[in-house]
Amino acid sequence: MPFEIAVVGSCNLDFVVPVRQIPKVGETILGGDLERIAGGKGANQAVAASRLGNSVAMIGRVGDDDAGIFLRGGMEANGVNTEFLFQTSGVPSGVALIAVQNDGDNTIVVSPGANSRLSPEDIIDSLPIGEAKIVLLQAEIPMETILAAARTATGTIIWNPAPAPTETIPLELLDLVDVLVLNQTELVLLSGVETIDNMKKAVEAAKTLPCSSKIVTLGEQGALVISSNDAVVIPAPQITPVDTTAAGDAFCAALAGSLVEKKDLVAAAQWAVNVGAATALVSGAQPSLPTSAEVWERLKNR
After folding, report:
1. Where along the chain do its domains lie?
2. Rounded (5°) CA angle 39-142-64
3. If you average pLDDT over residues 64-90, what whole number do you get?
4. How far apart (Å, rounded) are the C-alpha atoms in residues 55 and 37?
5. Strand 156-159 to 134-137 pairing
6. Per-residue three-class SS string for 249-298
7. Which of 187, 201, 244, 270 has the highest local Cβ count within 10 Å?
8. DSSP state of 228
9. Helix (H, G, I), strand (E, B) or coil at 166
10. For residue 106, what are the β-bridge partners?
11. Burial group, residue 234, by CB count within 10 angstroms (0-12, 13-18, 19+)
């Protein structure tokens, strides 16, 4: 049976240190105890979608190291199919270095490792991409591989261009994407608009992008949904975040699951906003990802 969701993307081992505040350039600060947590935008979205009740396949690469074993095991423990999670000999698995400050905000540096070796040829060998109802893509793998996945997909394509690509984005990719999910920083970079400091500017900038449907995540302000030139703002629950590391990934996974259920884009985004908020109430990337029942429990007790 085809998988409901195929995720094509990265797998990283996160090294997380809590800090009072993010250090400035040249500044050294003392942090709390180091945590070793499974992460990576692709793996996070795969685990989140599975925990929310969907059948999910992960397509990516890990190294032939202890980190690769750890990352694969974490996904399998959460019900994600890893048949197409390829092992790369002689290359380390991806690693993310994360500092999380007291208000939940973070800074992240990623060493892609095996993620950068995921190739268009790997995509050709990955059956779930052509069969899944939803294909979820991010930007921690090579651009040519993202494009190959979009060309191969027959279901709905959701692209989360995070981290914001520094290379030229093929216009063909934007034409193939059904739903573009990006934050304000990524919107600035993709649209070329110098600053976006209000909702009107966000709407105008999003409308310059060729995808028919766009969702701009706005953190504590919720999300902006633009489809067929109509713009809808979805407010977020009022929370005190603990760690925002995987909130965007949880948002994308929840959106994908709702579209599997054939919800309209606004209803899907409303659920995704709640899932993202609930995720930010728990620390760590994959450990923070909730089941559907846990979403409401966390928000009730926020």
Report:
1. 5-300
2. 55
3. 97
4. 23
5. parallel
6. HHHHHHHHHHHHCCCCHHHHHHHHHHHHHHHCCCCCCHHHCCCHHHHHHH
7. 187
8. T
9. coil
10. 100
11. buried
The yes-or-no answer on residue 249 being catalytic is: yes
Characterize 101-114 residue by residue with b for buried, 16 or more Cβ atoms within 10 angstroms of its Cβ, and e for exposed: beebebebebebbb
Superfamily of domain 5-300: Ribokinase (3.40.1190.20)
Radius of gyration of the chain (CA): 18
**Scanning the structure block, which residue is given the tokens 């059956």?**
127
In sequence order, the β-bridge partners of residue 56 are 5
Look up tokens 């934050």; give the residue: 183
Tell me the sheet residues that pair with 1.
Answer: none
pLDDT tens per residue across span 201-238: 889 999 989 888 999 999 889 999 999 878 999 999 99
In the block, tokens 């109802």 appear at 133
Secondary structure letter of residue 167 according to DSSP: S
Q: How many residues does the chain have?
A: 302
Closest alpha carbon to 7 in 100, 116, 85? 85
pLDDT value, residue 83 = 97
Q: How does pLDDT run across 226-274, given as a tens digit for each residue?
A: 998 789 999 999 999 998 889 999 999 999 999 999 999 999 999 999 9
The catalytic position among 65, 122, 178, 249 is 249
